[in-house]
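Trying the structure run again after the queue cleared.
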Amino acid sequence: MNPFRKTILAGALSCILAGGALSFGHTAAADQAQTTPSEVKPGTETEKRDGEHHRRNGHHGRKFVLFKDAATLLDMTETDLKKEWKQGKTLQQIAKEKKNWDAEVFVQKLAAVQSAKIDKAVKDGKMTSQQAEQLKKKLPGMLKRFTQHQYHPSQERRLPAAHSAI
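Done. Tokens:
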């Protein structure tokens, strides 16, 4: 057999053996860490829900800031607002029912809250004034889309497609 082929074959075989050893070591440690069924305690509903999805660093959850602000403006808890939203209502419809605000008034109130947060971010040095101006220009359109969004069951863990840059 060609010496080059022998070297490649030996290298491939050593990689396979090393990979198998690492895999075996990992499963052996996992077997030792297993608990008995009597030790397992069912978690609360929020613990189960939090464990279902991962958190992406820096991006996941930005839109929840807007949802929290909307709940605060409507004098509701986030869970109550989410329940009504999951019934198929838009945030504009909920605002009309709860506060008798039309869509434009609700968007203006949300924009005022977000503008204050943007100003605070500029003051704290988290963004430049130019970035703040650009974000404030986009804010009304983004918030209008956010408040018009309707829940769809396939979007179980997502909220309206509007992001807060703060």
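The mean pLDDT is 75. Worth checking whether this holds up in the mutant runs.
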